[in-house]
Amino acid sequence: MRVEIVAVGTELLLGQIVDTNSTMISQRLADVGLDCFFQAKVGDNLERIKLVLRDALSRSDAVIVCGGLGPTQDDITREAIAGVMGVPLEMHEDIAESIKAIFSSRGRTMSQNNLLQAMVPVGASAITQVRGTAPGLIAPVGRKVIYAAPGVPYELSEMLDRAIIPDLLERQGDKASIVSRVIRCWGLSESALAERLDPLFQEIDSTKAPITLAFLASGIEGIKVRLSARADTKEAASQVISRYEAKVLEVIGDHVFGYDDTTMEAAVGELLLERSLTLAVAESVTGGLVASRIVAVPGASRWFRGGVVSYDTEVKRTLLGVVADDVITAQAVIEMAIGVRSAIKSDVGLAFSGVGGPEGVGDHAVGTVFVGVDLGDGAPFAHELKLPGDRERIRQFSTISGLDLLRRRILKG
Fold it and tell me: Boundaries of each MoaB/Mog domain copy (predicted)?
């Protein structure tokens, strides 16, 4: 089953928003072993949308369209799909009543334009909307099919998992079970990881093992290694995953910090909880980014006590007790880590200081970052990083690298 993705919206072509929806859809397709060889973006123009859809259907078995299902004049995806099918649109009264009920429950007056969302091409079926007002569509075109989903990512994601992916798999007639596992790591470059995993790629290819291996560099989220296995049963697929997961771990070892949706900050939090430790952070170059990511972890209040954004040198001295002449040094971040641990009365102190750019500071080049760790064991330490990129990338890489340094230190005991 070959699936194509079409994202609708003039704002995509103008660069006003980034098309994250196509990425989301392609990831979901890959997770269940469906091929996606082409993706397209098209503006809010009826004839061009129909042209793109016909072109996609000429080479693919299914097309997933996202966007253009709203209630405004430029939301014309339904009309375009009806045109490709060669049928008119018809009002579905049950959808209309559902939309009216949604507005009534929110105490809002519904515009008549919203009833456009209850129009469905004759012969197509609607996908019930549970997070918004615009239903999706399943529109057969001969032996092929067009799916339409809202452009709002929150709504699209739910509709993909609940209706579109299951329908695709049913049409494919493949009763095999597919299991995926994402291994998340940090500390290796993408090229270094590729080199280490190359023998495993060769093994999978030569033995035609029922598994695929891929990896993706994801910035502050680390590098993701995805394993997907296909077998007659879920249990059999899981066994294949476990066997090759062990092979991956042999290669990248302690660079692995988590699995699937686990973030670095969540992984650090789990380690702190296991050891009944609390954390405080002192941030200069990261400017609060570390604390912000930590508090996004559910339950972080059980192990995170707080932080200090000591951006100004005087704040480092008065609040954290830094006495080092140069505040961008190993000694300075050690003093910051000790100071914040003491001030906030936590078990662990983690500190960051460096140069985010755009210009260097004294003898320190842009991307020079020091991370300090104090576990209250009388042996605080610091590590120097040389990070690439612009100001924002340096902040992000400082954050995940510093948390990874703390993770490794905790694991050593």
Answer: 4-171
Q: Residues 326-345: what's their mean pLDDT?
A: 98
Nearest of 44, 52, 43 to residue 4 by alpha carbon: 52
The residue extents of the domains of the chain are 3-172, 177-259, 264-412
Reported as a pLDDT band with limits 50, 70 and 90, residue 111 is: confident
Give residue-wise pLDDT tens across range 12-69: 999 999 999 999 999 888 878 788 999 999 999 999 999 999 999 999 999 999 999 9
Lowest mean pLDDT among 121-125, 223-227, 269-273: 223-227
Q: Which residue has 């993701």 as its token pair?
A: 224
In CATH, what number does 264-412 get? 3.90.950.20
Question: What CA–CA distance (Å, rounded) separates 9 from 26?
Answer: 18
pTM exceeding 0.70: yes
Distance CA 125, CA 260 (A): 34
Tell me how far apart the alpha carbons of residues 356 and 134 are, in angstroms, rounded to a whole number. Answer: 44
Instruction: Please tell me the distance from the alpha carbon of residue 44 to that of residue 292, in angstroms, as a whole number.
Output: 37
